[in-house]
Amino acid sequence: MERVDYESLLISELLQDRKNDVLDVAPWYQRRSVWNPSQKAYLLNTLFERKPIPSIYVRHVIDLENEKSVKEIVDGQQRVRSILEYRDGGFAAKHPAHGNRAVKYEDLTGPQKQSFLTSKLSVGYLIDADDADVIEIFGRINSISKTLNPQEKRNAQYSGEFKQFCLKKSVELVPFWRESRLFSDNDISRMLEVQMVSDLVYNMIEGLKDFSASALSKTYAKYDVEFPMRDAIEARWDKLFGIAVETGPDVFKRGIFGAYQIAQSLFFFLDSARASNWTVRKARQLMELVDTEISDLVLSPEITEANRAILDSFRGGNLHRIRARTQRHNYLTQVAQKVH
User: Fold this and answer.
1) What's the pTM value of the predicted model, to 2 decimals?
2) Which domain range does residue 235 map to?
């Protein structure tokens, strides 16, 4: 292979290639179509939001029988199929101009259709690539350069309502995550903050639960197509983090709540006790009281069995297990009675 040339391709040109029968979206080495409806809709919403999608890789091959050049999709089959299917009215996708309501192509206005058809796709053309080149490139593109953690796998597998909600809320709080040092840049790059958000939302729905990767995956699947309590959870979430962010990053950085597992217990407590109308001042006072009491327990020469259990729930090795979570929640409930 000589090189890869990157160019822009309008969606209207892609549609014209299909009409002219010069587009091969299923060459012999490609996988079958495997995307589910939510993944397809997520791709279209990404286009509507004018956000980038990965490049599509194409090889020109000569159809000797018909004496014409055919564009063979080396990588990007699912993206191309989804775009073509949307144009054919095969499914609906959320559109920002429709209040993020899911709409089909025929529901778009004239200007919206124009915008869709003139959207540019990044295409890498494989110049002078033979079959061996294509197989190697296909393998390289689709290989995983790093082992995916469970949250990265969930993010790749699901594209629906619950995933979008958790991702949106995580992104909105990136400055808070970084300033409070609850998550490092590397943590964020590996989506650990999205996992914590997902776990917290799961607990807001189901009540206090043990951390379980499989339970989170089942929740992603359960609410992939519809997330009926989204508005109610969002209202609670925004109220909760309106308080948490305003407490200031310093109170997290300098004390026991600097560990995200401990911070998550605080967030869950404040939400579960929302009827008590917590304020920023009260939340900060609670955190400072807990910091002081836990520090005193650490320095105490003698410690009761009950206090040892409390200390272990804040400083032990299994902070995300239900036993530690329950112990912390009960302790926060107890200390909260001292807040005025």
Assistant:
1) 0.74
2) 150-336
Q: How far apart are CA 186 and CA 62, in angstroms?
A: 46
Helix (H) or strand (E) holding 7: strand 3-10
Closest CA to 117 of 107, 99, 125, 105: 105
Instruction: Name the one residue in this structure whose structure tokens are 């000569």.
Output: 62
Residues 83-115 pLDDT 10s = 999 999 999 999 999 998 999 999 999 999 999
Number of domains in the chain: 2
181 shares its domain with 110: no
3-10 sheet: strands from edge to edge: 3-10, 120-127, 56-63, 68-75, 23-24
Which tokens hold the place of 133? 């080149």
Who's near 119: CB < 8 A, 6+ residues apart? 10, 11, 47
Closest residue by Cα to residue 313 from 333, 294, 296: 294
| Residue found under tokens 């110049």 | 127
Residues 9, 58 within the same domain: yes
